Amino acid sequence: MHELSIAKNIIEIVKESVEEKDLSEVDKVVLKIGDLSGVVPASLLFSLEAITNNTELENAGYEVINVPFIVKCNTCGKESNNEAGIVRCTLCGSNDTGIISGNELLVSEIILKN
Ligand SMILES: [Zn+2]
Fold it and tell me: What is the pTM for the complete model shown?
């Protein structure tokens, strides 16, 4: 399952970022997930909860920030929000575009309890 291996990576990142003694103090992990990443947030959250059950991280919560797929057009210079996977400018139809956002899959923030 795709999301399970991603969940394991996320937990690795949390463990690398937080001192071991503070792992049980993790209140919330903020994740940024782009529309192009192919990740289903609900599946990812399910996997995260499954693999942290009975660990220091079992009480941690997760917040998912969705990042829209946006391309910038090199022909008309405008940015447009596209259906995932289509890099054509929706405004002028040009294919000469660059991806601004939407590929993200990262740990944005780790918040500890006070
Ligand atoms: Zn355009």
Answer: 0.86
